[in-house]
Every structure is written in C-alpha cells, then in structure tokens.
C-alpha cells in the first residue's frame, strides 16, 4: 500500500508542476501581449485556456482518488489537500491570464500609449507577478517554508501599483476623453494582476500548510508586516 500511495503522490506532484508551468507561461504571454499589443499572442493565450481547465479537472480527480483509495494520513494527507487548493488557485490564475489576453484582442485601439503604460508601471507589475509565481513554485519543489513566506512581502508592490492606477488614468482622461472605454478596460487588467498576486500568496499558504502543518489563512497582513520588518532589520 505504501508503494502505491507514494507512486500516486509522485504523479500528482508532477501534474501540478506541469499545470504550474502552463499557467506561468499563460501569465507571461498575456503580460507580453498587453505590453506589445500582440493580438496573435493574446489569441494563443485564449486558446490554451482549455488546457488549463482540463488540467484542473484531471488533478481534482486524481487527488480525490488518492484520498478515496489510499486513505492518506499526516503529511501525505496534507500534501493531497494542499494540491487540491493549489490546483484551484492555478486555475484562477489561468482565468486572469485569459482575461488580460481578451482585453488585447477586443480593444479597438491599434496600440496603447507607451508613456501611459510606463507611468502606470505595467511591466513592473507583470514582472512581479511572474517572479512571485516562479518563487512559489520553487518553494514547493524545494519544500522551503522560507521561500514560500517571502512571497507574501512581494505582494505589497502589486497593491501599491494598483492603488495608483485610478488616479493616473483619471488624469490621462482629462486630455484623452475618447479613450474612456480603453482606460476602464485597462484598469481591469491591473485589477486582474493584483488579484493574481493574491492567489499566488494563496499558493504560498498551502505550501506552508503542507510542509509545517501551519494554517496561515486570513493572516496575510500580519505575515506581510513581519516580512517587511525582517527585511528592514537586515538592511
């Protein structure tokens, strides 16, 4: 029985890693598409969303089978439960990537104002989301609580950038009233990126739960504060 469940858990980890790689690429391509206004690349993201959904269903099924057939306990059970929740959050990240790509495909502009995107710090936000996603994946593969916790502090930058978006766009619209629809949709892109950060911190929560059996749900602000304090002390 032990050998069978070990094999199932190895397969489950592999599937989650494959889905994680796919979702990371979806976020990366969606970010690149909106930065370069590449509609062909955006369309590819939309098409690949079906693969993300298929992965979610497969992982859900395999995780549920592992519980029903092998009755895992202790760390094995925590691993399966964590993979179920990680799977759900990865699927939501895939949804955000698709939503960003749809903005590019459906926007009636031929290009976006580069100066506006620079002021909005769009590239910085996309890069931070990708960094957080990659760091969380490393935390799982290396089973590192320290790496997982570091993700929480990185979410602050996303909150900061998103908080300034409305003011910047409102100022821009004073002289570009014809771009109201585009600016509203662009603000939604930033909200999706900010929410992506929230879901990546959820991934980090589940990694800590799996490794240390510690539940961090609803403690994000406290953890962020501790991480920022530790960072300042090191500086």
Summarize the structure in words.
The structure is a single chain. The chain is mostly helical and 235 residues long. It has a single domain (2-234), classed as Phosphate transport system protein phou homolog 2, domain 2 (Methane Monooxygenase Hydroxylase, Chain G, domain 1, Up-down Bundle). The protein has eight helices and no strands. The radius of gyration is 19 Å and the shape is elongated. The model has no long low-confidence stretch (mean pLDDT 91).
Could you give a quick summary of the protein structure above?
Helices cover 87% and strands 0% of the residues. With 235 residues, it is mainly alpha-helical.
Work out the helix count.
Answer: 8
Q: What is the end-to-end distance?
A: 50 Å
Mean pLDDT: 91
**Percent range for β-strand residues:** under 5%
Q: What profile does the largest beta sheet have?
A: none
**Could you spell the SSE succession in H and E letters?**
HHHHHHHH
Q: How many domains in all?
A: 1
Blueprint of the fold:
Elements: H1 2-36, H2 39-70, H3 74-106, H4 114-120, H5 122-142, H6 145-173, H7 180-212, H8 220-234
What are the salient characteristics of this protein?
mainly alpha, 235 residues, Methane Monooxygenase Hydroxylase, Chain G, domain 1
């Amino acid at each position: 029985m032990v050998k069978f469940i070990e094999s199932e858990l190895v397969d489950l980890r592999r599937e989650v890693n494959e889905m994680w790689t796919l979702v990371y690429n979806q976020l990366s391509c969606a970010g690149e598409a909106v930065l370069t206004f590449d509609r062909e690349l955006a369309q590819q993201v939309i098409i690949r969303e079906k693969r993300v959904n298929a992965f979610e269903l497969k992982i859900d099924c395999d995780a549920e089978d592992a519980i029903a057939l092998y009755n895992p306990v202790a760390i094995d059970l925590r691993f399966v439960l964590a993979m179920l929740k990680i799977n759900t959050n990865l699927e939501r990240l895939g949804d955000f990537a698709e939503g960003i790509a749809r903005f590019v495909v459906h926007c009636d502009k031929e290009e976006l104002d580069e100066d506006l995107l620079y002021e909005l710090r769009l590239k910085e936000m996309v890069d931070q989301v990708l960094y957080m996603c990659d760091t969380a994946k490393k935390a799982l593969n290396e089973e590192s609580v320290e790496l997982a916790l570091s993700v929480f502090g990185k979410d602050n930058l996303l909150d900061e950038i998103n908080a300034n978006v409305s003011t910047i766009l409102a100022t821009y619209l004073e002289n570009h009233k014809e771009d109201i629809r585009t600016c509203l949709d662009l603000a939604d892109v930033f909200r999706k990126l900010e929410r992506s950060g929230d879901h990546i911190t959820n991934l980090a929560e589940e990694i800590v739960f799996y490794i240390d059996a510690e539940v961090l749900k609803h403690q994000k602000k406290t953890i962020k504060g501790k991480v920022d304090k530790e960072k300042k002390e090191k500086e």
